[in-house]
Amino acid sequence: MIQIDETLAHTIQSVEQNGVYxxxxxxxYSVTGVDMVFSHVVxxxxxxxxxxxxFDMQEFSIEKNDLGILMPGHVLRRISCSDDYxxxxxxxxxxxxxxxxxxxxxxxxxxxxxxxxxxxxxxxAKRMMxxxxxLEAIASHDTNDLQLRHQMLLSQLAxxxxxxxxxxxxxxxxxxxxxxxxxxxxxxxxxxxxxxENRNVDFYSGLMDYDARYFSKVFRQYSNGLSxxxxxxxxxxxxxxxxxxxxxxxxVKEIAYQLGFPDTANFCRxxxxxxxxxxxxxxxRRS
Length: 287
Known about the structure:
Number of helices: 13
Number of strands: 9
Shape: globular
Distance between the termini: 9 Å
Strand content: 15-25%
Mean pLDDT: 84
Order of helices and strands: HEEEEEEEEHHEHHHHHHHHHH
Strand order of the largest sheet: 1-8-3-6-9
């Protein structure tokens, strides 16, 4: 885990410093079976090979030229990949992501949650790589005018969004016609926002103005049988694991408080119900 943590730490530092971090080719440095949650917008383009990933507890197959967008707070886990698997990636800072959301996709950013990836043609993938190279050149350019660099990055990202929006227009139309997909997306977004204050299914079905029983029935149709309560538990457990992985010095009591639990015992029971082990045991295994 040391090498991975250092790589992620370097990436996050670069994102915070420059607003955007671009890596034109990554050869399989991410670990398999570990849930990853970022506070940034992450764009991934598969260059070759294939992989199986979980996004918000949904399983997807990734092939060459598949483009994925991970919005802040959502969960990504790589299940497996081929030996030749490689991808390009872009990390966009939270600040720039908020600006981009305001200017470019304030009305339909949720589509990246219920349909986080799409397939590009060879020509489209080549255009996206050209855009990534331009973003990398701007982000790494040594200039005293930071505001100018910020605006240049923002304008290129907005152009990139227009490309993506056009490339996936037919897929988006099909997804928006799916009632269960829309409901699933709304639920996932609400959990990301409110999981620290409320982990009750009735709370979320109420926010969406659905009867809890009907909501659970429709939800299961899209979640491969996973109930809303099970989804919430897995998401909260994922957040807890992320804290324990990135900050092993924190105590279980501190983590419980950070996640909004009234006391340590309540958090420990909740974590065991979701994972089968207590957080102390998880910390011991990871160390």
